[in-house]
Amino acid sequence: MRVAGAEPGQGGVRPVGEVFDPACRRCPRLAAWLDCGRAKHSGYHLAPVPAFGDAAPRLLIVGLAPGFHGANRTGRPFTGDHAGILLYRTLHALGLASAPASIDAGDGLRLHGVRITNAVRCVPPANAPRPDEVHRCNAYLTHELESLSPRAVLALGQVAHRAVLRAIGARPSRFDFAHAAVHDLSPVFALVDSYHCSRYNTQTRRLTDDMFHAAVSRAAALAGLIPGDGDAD
Ligand code: SF4
After folding, report:
1. CA of 25 to the centre of ligand 1 (A)
2. pLDDT beneath 70, residues of the chain
3. What local confidence, expressed as pLDDT, does residue 232 receive?
4. I need a surface site. Which of 37, 64, 98, 233 has the fewest CB within 10 A?
């Protein structure tokens, strides 16, 4: 499905981006949650998780938030937990990752033309960030999108989808989230939606390997990273 006619910024105030602060504590609930975790998990990252991947990506992948025992432990998005299994395996199958698994931040994994970030940089209780937390962290996503200028963005889940739209000043209500939907936000980028590759979604078969492979392939093709039927330009 392709949705055309995007007008980023229409009707709204242009978002102001900010350079990511790795020591950010703007969200009191999340900062307190991190402080609480330090008492039990001394070896964990337990801080805002920076983006990972190519410094000049054509494709930016946006997830929800760090998992407690995944990115919050290792300090790298989708690394060390179930959610990253399908993501990195798919990227490797498409030639966009140097290895099929992301184990820890020191494993030497490299991404080619791809960067991975999250709508919310700090692990939230129950994997559920509040709207005000997504809103606060959006300034970092705005800056990433402005400074990186990817040709395509892959949003993993509805929260990421709405965060991406908000980050460029587009009205989320104009673009419905749907798995495999492609939203033409030209001249900014093409936005591709996918169900999140979470344990719940994959184990319930809401998201199959084939479904995810197709969505990532579509985004990579729109980014010009692999051959495909669509080009963002
Ligand atoms: S979620 Fe984002 S804005 Fe909130 S404290 Fe963490 S890094 Fe800062």
Report:
1. 6
2. 1-13, 229-233
3. 37
4. 233
